[in-house]
Amino acid sequence: MRRGYKKVGYKFDEKIAKFRSINNPYKHDVIIHPIMRGGIIPDEVQKMIINEGWMKVGYAVCYDCIEGRSGLVSKPPINEFLSTVAEFFDGDMAEHTFGSRAAQFSVMKTIADNISEDFARIVLTDPLCHYTTAVAAEMNNLRLLEAQHSNYPDYKVNAEDFVNKIESIKKETGKLPGLIAVTHVEPYYGNLNPVKEIGKIAKDYGIPYMVNAAYTAGIFPVSMKELKADFLTVSAHKSMASIGPLGFLVTNYEWSDKAFKKSTIKPDWTGRTFGKKIVNIFGCSIGGLPLISAMYSFPHVAERVKKWEEELDKARWFISEMEKMDGIKLVGERPHNHHLMHFETPIFWEISKHHKRKGFFLAEEMIKRGIVGLHRGLSKHMKISLYGLSWEEVKRVKDAFYDLTQKYVDEFKLNYELPKA
User: At 84, is the secondary structure helix, strand, or coil?
Assistant: First the structure.
């Protein structure tokens, strides 16, 4: 039916009634999706949000707003929280944004507005950056050029390749790139990029440097100063146990006035001004319930980053157990340095050729076992995270893979060697 057209007897009330009956079939399941694990909200935080009535209204933090920007609100203490976030990441100033993607847009806009004649309208990035880095550059009419990686099977980035690309850009344009933007841990294979080494290169050339820490800030200790970063973009809903969308842009004093510049526009008839609004974060990023959740979760996040080595142990143990199954192989760097894991899974691919549900069988079999988060339809490769799970839960996930594999190897009489569960 054409949008806006209502045929005779059409019951709009009946159509919208179904939205009241939406349920969450996964509310009791173990989540293993890499984009979700760092955003798991502690049970006590969920209870506090409900008990304190923060879900009553969309503009949850605006009751006592005086100056017209949520980052300036002192009740609840958002201004103090932002200062603490900056301190936590070893930066000077922070503002909350609509996710890391909006923070990246703010950085690109800052660079686009302040490029001098010595710099080209080019962002130099890693070859596995998140798509939002590319879109942020595109939105600001900046070219996006990439350093290379080592290709299959580890896809590693070498800091020296950034030097080579900078020199190539200089040769082509006679200028330096306007920004180096590097993904701390890339979202495809979970590789930890050489951000410290690239930061030193950026400083040596005098090029502004952004680190996209969407998968790391709030997961393990991150220091802007150690990375020599001018900008740090953070995803609270991905890595700081927060409701989304929420992120942070953290910067240093050198760039803060430009990144967080105030509005100067003055319409001709009314003469209105908006001097407290920050242009690059759309005036006010509102915050609302996500910001409340981030504040409640912050002590939990600050504590968990101290336990990163235990999380690495879980990931590396799981990798070793999965690779005991014939043909399964981790793709990416070894030893692995992040909770996001990408596996080649030819045994599941072979099962999918015989299964009536094809590639969908894998995610569906795991859901039957109370484990959710595998990409539906994929069986040749899979991405997974166990971050924050107990050892008991980690072993449960491993056993689930072993169990379903044994089931179908036996059923379809496949020639694969399997370990005992």
Answer: helix
Contact status, residue 274 vs residue 186, Cβ threshold 8 Å = no
Q: Convert the pLDDT of each residue in 32-60 to its tens digit.
A: 999 999 999 999 999 999 999 999 999 99
pLDDT at 14: 86
Rounded Cα gap, residues 56 and 53, in angstroms = 6
* pLDDT band, very low/low/confident/very high, at 328 (cuts 50, 70, 90): very high
**Kind and range of the H or E run holding 344:** strand 341-344
Tokens of 182: 């590097």
- Where would I find the H helices in 119-194? 131-139, 159-173
Number of domains forming the structure of the chain:
1
SS3 (DSSP) at 108: helix
- Note the pLDDT of residue 359: 98
The per-residue pLDDT for 7 is 64
For position 421, what pLDDT does the model report?
67
Q: What is the model's pTM?
A: 0.95
Which CATH number goes with the domain that contains 232?
A: 3.40.640.10
In-domain check, residue 68: yes
State which residues form the domain around 241. Answer: 48-304
Instruction: Please tell me the distance from the alpha carbon of residue 397 to that of residue 144, in angstroms, as a whole number.
Output: 39
**263 belongs to a structural domain:** yes
CA neighbor of 369 nearest in space, from 407, 340, 337, 321:
407
- Please enumerate, as own/partner, the contacts of 396-402 that have beta carbons within 8 Å and a separation of 24 or more: 396/30, 396/371, 397/30, 397/32, 397/318, 397/371, 398/318, 398/321, 398/322, 400/365, 400/366, 400/369, 400/371, 401/322, 401/325, 401/366, 402/325
| Residue in the structure block whose two tokens are 């949000």 | 49
120/165 Cα distance (integer angstroms): 13
Q: CA-to-CA distance for 340 and 37, rounded, in angstroms?
A: 9
The token duo for 69 is 């920007």
Residue 154 in domain: yes
pLDDT of residue 367: 99
What pLDDT, on the 0 to 100 scale, is given for residue 420? Answer: 79
| Whole-number Å distance between alpha carbons of 320 and 324 | 7
Write the pLDDT tens digit of every residue in 180-225: 999 999 999 999 999 999 999 999 999 999 999 999 999 999 999 9
* 187 inside domain: yes
**Cα distance between residue 251 and residue 257, in whole Å:** 10
Amino acid letter, 9: G
- Tokens 């979700």 identify what position? 36
